[in-house]
Amino acid sequence: MRLVLSIFGTLTSAFPLWVLLAGILALVQPTLFTWFTGSLIPIGLGLIMLSMGMTLGFEDFRRVGRKRRQVLPGLLLQYTVMPTLGWSLGYLFDLPTPFAVGLVLVSCCPGGTASNVICYLAKADVALSVTMTALSTVLASLMTPALTELLAGSRIEVPAGRLLLTTVQVVILPVFAGALIKWRLPRVIEVVLPIAPLVAVATITLIVASIIGAGREQILEAGPRLVFAILSLHAFGFLFGYAAGKSILGHKIAARTISIEVGMQNSGLGVVLAGQFQNPLVAIPSAISSVFHSLIGSLVAAWWRRSVPEEPRSS
Predict the structure, then answer these.
(1) Structural domain of residue 295, as residue ranges?
(2) For 171, which DSSP code?
(3) Closest CA to 198 of 50, 48, 298, 56
(4) CATH number of residue 120's parent domain
(5) Which of 36, 147, 225, 261 pairs with 253 at a CA distance of 20 to 30 A?
(6) Within a domain: 19
(7) Neighbours of 232 (CB within 10 A)
(8) What's the mean pLDDT in 278-303?
(9) Among residues of the chain, what percentage have pLDDT more than 90?
(10) Which residue, 72, 51, 49, 39, is CA-closest to 172?
(11) Residue 314 lies in a domain
């Protein structure tokens, strides 16, 4: 059993590699992944959020009160730095409207669950990361539609009401259900939890590859502009998140955690929410975003693991 769990852990940790390989394959042979479409995408994201809820449980939400001095600045940066970058880069790189709106949309999404794994690898504060991810996810039902409407409403009709409803359906309800299962059926969690992260990795990989495969022609046509815009979004997100976190909190570990939380978005949610727009190209930036934030996060984690932080990690 230990060997099996070790293999699962290794496969899960290679998440950035799977996303990168699947993305490349989707560009070369789109039909390998384009079958994963339609209702399968929101169902897949719902399963990921259910897994997140089972991982967190209600007790993790109580950390907000105990860690509010660290959590609140992180949340503020999450919903200011990234949306501002997304809006600015869309204009700076002169992206076509669907791509610019998609960039704004993914920048307004909450932190992704992969950030918790990256925080662990980077010797950051995993408890703070989990708390920030959970709270930013809960807030997403209001913040993501509102910020997208504010920043992209002048370029395209933003279905704010449908974005709100979809966020509740595929994020809030599954997370709550997962936490409820952990509370009421702990034995079920013992069986499911070891394989849940790997299932989440496989699902998000399929979602990303499917969107990239479906938008292959448009991605190749957009070329370097779209790629560099998305790369810049996450690179500057990590950079500004660390700088602001260090300035506000004064601790390297907290700064690392906030950097990762700010720089990594829930791109899967961005893909699902993009389905509420009439133009399917709005989903493309979210799909590519998943590749870049995972790769940058992995590189950052590898670099930070080389230096042992001076401050002890909080539990």
Answers:
(1) 41-304
(2) I
(3) 48
(4) 1.20.1530.20
(5) 147
(6) no
(7) 17
(8) 83
(9) 21
(10) 49
(11) no
